[in-house]
Amino acid sequence: MLIHIVGGGPKEFLPSFQPYKQQEIQWIGVDRGVLTLLQAGIRPTKAFGDFDSISKQELEYIQTMLKDLDIWPSEKDKTDMEIALDWVAEQQADRIRIFGATGGRIDHLLGNIQLLAKYIAQPIEIVDKQNVVTIHLPGTYSVEKDGHHYISFIPISYEVKGITLKGFKYPLENCHIQLGSTLCISNELIQSFGTFSFSEGILMMVRSKDLEEAF
């Protein structure tokens, strides 16, 4: 099962949903993302949020369109996205994609990236027009050349040890980097596939397109 979550980020950062319109995908709306989905002709199976970013008329429209609407108070201890992910994490999905989580407020962007670390055992990625963001525990991973020209590796924990990159323009062998290091920013695959591995820490991978290709 695939689960796609759409948050309330600016529409200009959203990729087209057309390639993702498959029957086996379960769509989840978060706050204004519910309206974004409905306007795209997609009826989410479940929706979460305090809906403080939409008008009363828009909320009434959403309520006429959806049965499973989980409305929360605006004063709460979690963001709408975290509430949605709490539920999604229990569904045992094969892959979870989050759209509408970038652009706009930087605090929400940073919070959403940290949610990837909270749910690191889940197969989650944040996707926008230009980037795909994933977070990884120690191990060996394969990366395919897929139209994202740049691949960056950013430490999320204080230290990441044993980083090895193969099939990349700038290879590494058993390298240690600390939080704040930019050593692994803007690498590129030189083969159809590459691998990255590391032995300790938490590592974020960001795959990015050139700006003119994305927008």
Query: Largest sheet, if any?
Result: 9 strands, mixed
Structural class: alpha/beta
Say what the CATH topology of the largest domain is.
Rossmann fold
Q: Please name the fourth-level CATH homologous superfamily of the largest domain.
A: Thiamin pyrophosphokinase, catalytic domain
* Uncertain residue segments: none
The CATH class designation of the largest domain is Alpha Beta
Helix content: 10-25%
- Give the rounded overall mean pLDDT: 93
Distance between the termini: 30 Å
Number of helices: 5
User: What's the order of the H and E elements?
Assistant: EEHEHEHEHEEEEEEEEH
Based on CA inertia axes, which overall geometry fits? elongated
Radius of gyration: 18 Å
Taken as a percent bin, the fraction of beta residues is 25-35%
Domain module count: 2
Judging by the overall fold, what is the CATH architecture of the largest domain?
Answer: 3-Layer(aba) Sandwich
Pfam family, one: TPK_catalytic
Keywords: ATP-binding, Kinase, Nucleotide-binding, Transferase
Enzyme class: transferase
Protein name: Thiamine diphosphokinase
Defining key terms:
single chain; alpha/beta; ATP binding; 20% helix; 2 domains; Rossmann fold; transferase; nine-stranded mixed sheet; elongated; 215 residues
